[in-house]
Amino acid sequence: MQKGLLQIYSGNGKGKTTASVGLIVRALGQGLRVLWVRLLKPVAPPSGEVIFLEGTAGLEIITAGVGIIGRKVPPDEVRVNIETAFRAAVTRIATESFDLLVIDEINNALHRTYLDLDEVLSFLDGRPDQLEVVFTGRHAPAALINRAELVTQMEELKHPYAAGIPARRGIDY
To answer: What are the structural domains, with CATH classification, of the chain?
Structure first.
């Protein structure tokens, strides 16, 4: 690949993770190496995309492990968990050759101050030239939006949760 770009998938609408997983599949199909970091999402129940892709050649997954969806977790525990996962990813990028890095829910982690924006910006400044980076999650910081070459804002017009329809296995996770 040539110079890697920064892509941001943000907004209140559904589809940010789905779009990034589609990109992961496309990259793997073309023989690229991918590091996928998952923040703020619970380990259980496992999402369908993780069940399907786990163990795929060319893909490494780092899951922070502490999910906040439907749970009350002490903020300090979440912060340490996210910082540990992010720093593990930075180490993997520094020691191995990857073509694509996807950090799912990093925008939310930054918004909730679980992760330091300056640390993320420093990582972006020092990343390998060919590394494509995708950040997902609501509330993308302006500093990231300004740096990105591609920004997609998902807009929610209607959602089944508003009608009391819970998340469905195989469709929503």
So the answer is: 6-154 (3.40.50.300)
